[in-house]
Amino acid sequence: MMADRDFYEALGVSRSASQDEIQRAYRKLARKYHPDVNKEPEAEDRFKEISEAYDVLSDPDLRKRYDAFGADFRQVPDGVDPQAWRRAREYEGAGAGARRTAGGRPGTGTGGFRYASASTEDIDIDDLFGGIFGGRSRREWGPIPGADQEAELALTVEEAYHGGRRSVTLAGAGGQRSFDVNIPAGVVDGQRIRLAGQGGHGSSGADAGDLYLVVRIRPHRRYRLDGRDVSFTLPLTPWEAALGATIPVETPGGEAKIKVPPGTSSGRRLRLKGQGLPNPRGQPGDLYAEVEIMVPPKLSAEEQRLFEQLAGASTFDPRKRP
Fold it and tell me: Which of 3, 33, 134, 243 is the most exposed place for a label (fewest CB within 10 A)?
């Protein structure tokens, strides 16, 4: 998780950026830092940073809360006034500074902890937070629902494609907990799966919070993901590329056949529409085969003769612009 870094800074966009600008910035950075493409040691951590930032800023409700409360946006209860929250945090920080200045001497008030400032003016933390919660002190809040919690759920591309039931074990302060999780088919990196009532415990009989499993799709030796679109490299022989061919290929959903048009060059992307990750709420992603023409590393005598014959007969010059 990104503890301190600003989400907008992580994506390199302004705070007024549109959703299209945020999406374009994410896709550009994702292609640059995807661990399957970028082998630098810090690439995977950077990819996780931008994925978390996009997960929040691409969701209008989460973005609104993040803009209001910053890094605390997941902990602040609903209905809290942002300005009152910021004032309380500032005063709480001032109280902590005063505590260090005064050697941690507690005040003499009876309404919770009080800290003496350098000017001996008492700051009542309960009063400050009471301003947020309707003027009540923390002892008068009554039952408080448990906090929502998050944990990462690592999946392979194939698991994300097919979904299904999975047993998940998480370690926490209270020991290990195991859950049976229903993973929807076609989950994408950064998507959150909600387990109602499995978060932090509430006080005084209040409901527990929710547990959110944040999907992280592991780098794959073959497939590269961009949202629900899946790309992979398709090696072709020179004659398959020149003459055209129908090639069987493995996809996350099983075997498919891709038609290579005659005259295909390296770098061409061939699309299989709807063969990417499924989408239970809309259009599925597409599958893209990126052509790479391969030549035999060592020619047989017959291959040598045929290639020389082709070289003598062909007038094609790839370095000459049409």
Answer: 3
Task: Give the separation between CA 289 and CA 243, rounded to whole angstroms.
Answer: 18
- In this structure, whether the domain defined by 145-219 belongs to CATH 2.40.160.20 is answered with no
Q: Are 128 and 91 in contact (CB under 8 A)?
A: yes
List, in sequence order, the alpha helices (H) in 170-260.
238-243
Q: How far is CA 293 from the centre of its chain?
A: 33
Per-residue pLDDT of 105-154, as tens digits, reads 333 333 332 222 333 344 344 444 444 445 554 444 456 777 788 888 99
Q: Determine contact, residues 266/277, Cβ cutoff 8 Å.
A: no
Residues 6 or more apart whose CB falls under 8 angstroms from that of 298 comprise none
Angle (CA) 95-99-103 rounded to 5° is 170
CATH number, domain 224-311, options 1.20.1440.230, 2.60.260.20, 2.120.10.80, 2.102.10.10: 2.60.260.20
* Residue type at 35 in one-letter notation: P
Rounded alpha-carbon distances, angstroms, from residue 305 to 240, 316, 317 = 19, 18, 20
